[in-house]
């Protein structure tokens, strides 16, 4: 289980202080898919950086499987928003996907298998020798997802991973994430500012207030596990859930935290 308890993060530079996160508490059960949704600038990236051990919180803590997270935990992979910056342009797709496996000291033959199966899983069979700059934005983001999948993480963090791709690609990638989550039984924490995306993807949605950020509300997405872009988004239940999330986010914007 991933536990975030009383998390607070204040950035200080000189005399200027920004309280990005005030007091965040929530949990993600093993194998769950939880979407965090909140207004722009509410500290979603700060939160994921704390969860992935890249940033030390000012107070509070993050625990994974009962142990405190004090640095990047083994068994965790992160997919960032900007695929352009997360892939190394001078390395082939294969080398990009393989790099974390080398760092994990996976044997060469197994690395080859994992690279191939993860590229297959994201629909990029046959692109291993291409360079990222030869691929479209959506394909580059698939490479970033393949790299995370190849790592065989127990926990996958995704920070607005589809913000920079077109609507059709985004819909395809959303379905890809749900399919991979169902197949791999990985725990997913997915951050987005897009309410529809949060409800479509998640089994639970955690709503954040605007900065300084607290958990505004949480809801269980009791839609059928089999979802598809056309029917799920037209389902009255989907519309009811997205309305609830929307109302909470609007409320959060109006409630200025003191
Ligand atoms: N390194 C930093 N130093 C100072 N302030 C920072 C730093 N990083 C973020 N902040 C501030 O913390 C707040 C939260 O930023 P963060 O990037 O975590 O939000 P976000 O919800 O991910 O934003 P967006 O949705 O726009 O990507 C903002 O007010 C931001 O200006």
From TrEMBL:
<feature type="domain" description="ABC transporter">
    <location>
        <begin position="2"/>
        <end position="235"/>
    </location>
</feature>
<dbReference type="Pfam" id="PF00005">
    <property type="entry name" value="ABC_tran"/>
</dbReference>
<protein>
    <submittedName>
        <fullName>NitT/TauT family transport system ATP-binding protein</fullName>
    </submittedName>
</protein>
<dbReference type="GO" id="GO:0005524">
    <property type="term" value="F:ATP binding"/>
</dbReference>
<dbReference type="InterPro" id="IPR003439">
    <property type="entry name" value="ABC_transporter-like_ATP-bd"/>
</dbReference>
<dbReference type="InterPro" id="IPR017871">
    <property type="entry name" value="ABC_transporter-like_CS"/>
</dbReference>
<dbReference type="InterPro" id="IPR050166">
    <property type="entry name" value="ABC_transporter_ATP-bind"/>
</dbReference>
<dbReference type="GO" id="GO:0016887">
    <property type="term" value="F:ATP hydrolysis activity"/>
</dbReference>
<keyword id="KW-0813">Transport</keyword>
<keyword id="KW-0547">Nucleotide-binding</keyword>
<dbReference type="InterPro" id="IPR003593">
    <property type="entry name" value="AAA+_ATPase"/>
</dbReference>
<dbReference type="InterPro" id="IPR027417">
    <property type="entry name" value="P-loop_NTPase"/>
</dbReference>
<keyword id="KW-0067">ATP-binding</keyword>
